[in-house]
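tool=predict chain=A
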Amino acid sequence: MTATPSLPAPAPEAESPLRRYFALLYVALCVMIGLFWPQVEIEGAQAWGYVLLSAPGVPGAHLLLGGRPPGVAGPVARRLPGRGVWLAGAAGLGGSLVLLAVYADYRLFSLYQYHFNGFVWNLLTTPGGIAALGATESTERTVVMQVAGIVLANMAVLWLLHRYHDRGWQLPRRTWRRTAATLFCLLGVVELGFAYSVHTGQENILAAADAIPFHLKSGASKLFKRLGVEPRGKENMRLAGGEVVYPAEPVDSSKVRPDNVIILVAESFRWDLLDPEITPNLWRFSQRATRYERHYSGGNRTRMGMFSLFYGIYAPYWYSFEKQRVPPVLMQVLRQQGYQMALHTSQSFTYPELHHTLFVDVPPENMHAIQQGDAWRRDIQNIDDLTRHIDQRDPQRPFFGFMFFESTHAPYSFPEDSALRPDYLRDMNYIDLDLRNNIGGIHNRYVNAAHHIDAQFGRLLEHLERTGMLDKTAVLFTGDHGEEFMEKGRWGHGHGSTFPEEQIRVPLVLWRPGVEPAVVSHRTSHLQVAPTLLHWLGVQQAPQTYSSALPLEQEMPYFVFGEYDHMGVDDGEHKIVFPYTGRDHFRYSVYDENDHPVTRTQRDEVVAAAQPLLTAVSHESRRFVR
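tool=predict ok
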């Protein structure tokens, strides 16, 4: 029998550059993670101790999980020719990916105050999600350049370390192994500390944990209970999920009158855009219709805003309704009555998933999405197409039209020759965006985009009046949610567990033939729109059988908002916010009506007094599922 020759062990000099590379990479990650600290409120010695303890452990875990520890290549790599090249390539690729992930998370957190999460993953993996970001060409160029720069810098460092490895320091392999073991143990201590804080309600530490990217957010309540540690943290609330039972009873649509309905929604369109100068066509129209002066969306994201508008129920239902493809009663009634439909969007029906919720039963040939080109051009084309479909309809049958305007989504698109505010920021590069110094120019872009949408609304309105269709058509204009311009310290919308006025307050103008012009000054909600439209069309059934709200003419005792993981309840004096999906540790956040956080003592008092209300909201969030 011929003996198999043994492979020669690699010389330690071949691996020493990688060890030095990993050491430098570790230092770079520590510095990058430190950049998160100024953006998070860290209160007290315990919180700072936790963050400082995380500083060496978490970067080490990122490093060790992002690529194999140097010198451990496995049996396959040992049989490859040029093992050192393979090791260097794997190390460079792994290191680049780790750096890019932390850097991307830092940019994301700087703009929107949340880390890479399920929402971001959904955005990246859902058709139309990336396009919905509205990134400019300069942003895309900068991203490509920075990614290339990080990768090339990594490879350059590797090459230099290999080129001059004999002039550098070396550490024994045993030291590296001990270091790796120490870092993993330290990570275990950090995660155990977080789990203990969740179990015992150490909210200062839980808040400080936001300074840690790609945090595991471990839990160990069962372990602590066995050890006799008394739980003082709140149990996670899970309101989302369940089998849909909706509506609670069949809706009688036999008395629905055949009047047309057109719903127009503009992206990120907040209430103060309804203005004689900014939106003159919409403003004049509001003088003839019903204008709701203090109107609120049911969420600060498109998904939840649109869901509340068409269904009239709370945000937790979205998950079950989307999964089980349950349409809103409003659309069920229109389809039962044979309405012709022309649905248009300058965004997408797949992101957010309107084709699985609002319009689940609408034939695809009636749904028209334009996703290529400038948003302002898409809005023009969609209004052209909508008016054409109106002209081509069968006048003997009722018509339902829908339009979603995209121009007011960042980067706020408009034709330059229509700019109302000439002092606007010319280039919206998200990567190097200086919000503090450029927010005025950014807001002017937003105003110009709204002015452009108003021109398109004016074109549609003129067509409805000229053809006489307006006399038989209900027309509604609103926003899916609002937009903040640093009034409360943030830009944009959908910032996790906050629902500031600027992100949820929107205009609502509703024209109904035969209804006298009016201005409604009490607060109203998107949740009330579907019951109002159905009642106007002739559905006599009580709204409670399909909605969580009363018609717009009746004042609601409280308001409920939602986003993907958090709900907010506004009782007129405070906004109480809490997570509802079980993905986050449970804690209440309380804000006054000016969106300022209250003290911890005040928070506990407000929450205690509001328990009957919070219980009612939780019950209502489960009424249509079992």
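The two ends are 70 Å apart (CA to CA). The CA atoms of residues 261 and 270 lie 23 Å apart.
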